[in-house]
Amino acid sequence: MNIFDQNKVCKYCMDEIKPCKDEGLQCFECNQMVHLRCLKRGSVPGGLHGDVFFTYKCTECSASGVEVFIRNKTSWMQIIVLVLYHLREKRPGLARRGFFHWRHHVASFIDKNWDIIFPPDTKMKKKWRGTIAGTLSHFNPFIFVSGTSIFNEPAWWTLKYTSLSPDVITHIHAEMINEKGVLKSKKLKVPSDAELFGKVLTLCVDDQEYLQTFIVNTTQVDIKDDYEKVPVVKKVVRTKRKGPTNSLSNPKKLFKAGTASLDIPIELITEPEEKLQTHPTCTKKEQETERTENIKLYDPFCHYNTSLNKLAYLRGTSLYTKLTGGIRQEPFLSPYSEIYLKPYIRRDTEIFPPWLKLMAEIQLTVNAKYDSEYELPPRAPLDYTYVQPEHIPAINSLCNQFFWPGIDLTDSLKYPDFSCVVLYKRLIVGFAFLVPDVSHTENYMSFCFTRPGWRNCGIGRFMVYHLIQTSLGKDITLNVSINNPALFLYQKFGFKVEKVVLDFYDKYLICDYNDKSKHAFFCRLER
Ligand SMILES: [Zn+2]
Ligand SMILES: [Zn+2]
């Protein structure tokens, strides 16, 4: 299969197959191409963006009449490029200034989608996470770019060439290895991988649009100096095209000039002037458009919405469903991150909430009358889970009872990653929610609640801890009533009071907000 061949058209729609824009798979029987979007099954198995690492047989060639996809053996470099490419396109909101955390985002995505990414029966080697870290460093800075200088933490990574698809990067890398072999056999000086990759790239791709390198959105560190240290970047960004070297005299073109459209993904920029000097082809306007297209922002107070219709609905719900919610035993797909979430965040059998203590005492006293040897049976665990549709009626009911009427948390099902629901058997004893992406750098904590009788034993603390863990790299903000003791918990986690919002709860309170003040502190945890 040769993607350098430019005159391929899709056998179904007859439109051109365009690398990085509108890619396709080639049937290994009839050799015809099919756009990923024109596949009969709708998308490739797993649905990863830009994933063409399959051996494919079209419906017409397949004996069963069903398309066949066999996962190819892929290198770790290819897999990481694929995951970063997918996350950039589909989950830009997870990123911190365009960078993804190698363990929490990349490794955890691979972990959850192992069966999709690898051929069947691929064994998970013990140190596979270490391999990811090693691979990222090995291909730094010509395929991957590290965010170390920005975050003072060597955990954040992104793709150097934001417009190149995993398939194209694979081909350029293969070409580079090939080139290395040629130079070696001719006993010529072999440049560094980074230099050679840059050379091959500029020879194979002569459209500047595709040579855009990642630009960080930063106000703290001027990364210009950082780029100066890397010779390849300068060449790629600033020179139109290098003259061919001996062995590269007949480069194959990846793209025809002029095939690029304007919607190339460019990283966000806040202060245009300095950065634009290093990357002359992007204008502020383009970046702004890109930003608004990439990230959907949520209203921080969307969980506070009240509606009278909802009130009527809630009255009709049975007491049983208002109090309880089940737990699913299988992992489920988050519509937000497209990651499989585990059924349990944590199962706790250690802590003894006051309510359970009271119940245990009653049980002991009553039973001791008849059996002096009586021992308490082991207690059921407290289960920390992600929010599920079956929890919503009970959570809404608790919110209506303890906060204000008409609250509806159905919206939280769109981003279950940012939730924590605590169950004792089927009884909901606590919950906490974040609204993600209320701004480009901020998630908002809308509710954190523990049932009376279950407080002061660490449930709230773990829920807040969990939510902080899910928002790596983003500030968390919240409003808390000025006489709510939960403020101390937030302060322990590093939340700082930023301002006082007078009458914050006024607009929500239909009846008295029990003993809480209607004024609120606006607090922020800076990351
Ligand atoms: Zn097509
Ligand atoms: Zn075919």
From TrEMBL:
Gene Ontology molecular function: histone acetyltransferase activity; zinc ion binding
PROSITE patterns, sorted: GNAT, ZF_DAG_PE_2, ZF_PHD_1
N-acetyltransferase domain residues: 382-514
Domain of life: Eukaryota
InterPro entries: Acyl_CoA_acyltransferase (IPR016181), GNAT_dom (IPR000182), PKC_DAG/PE (IPR002219), Zinc_finger_PHD-type_CS (IPR019786)
Xref: Gene3D superfamilies: 3.40.630.30, 3.90.980.20
Matching Pfam families: Acetyltransf_1
Phorbol-ester/DAG-type domain sequence ranges: 1-46
Keywords from the named record: Metal-binding, Zinc, Zinc-finger
Protein name: Cysteine-rich protein 2-binding protein
UniProt source species: Acanthoscelides obtectus (Bean weevil)
Lineage: Eukaryota, Metazoa, Ecdysozoa, Arthropoda, Hexapoda
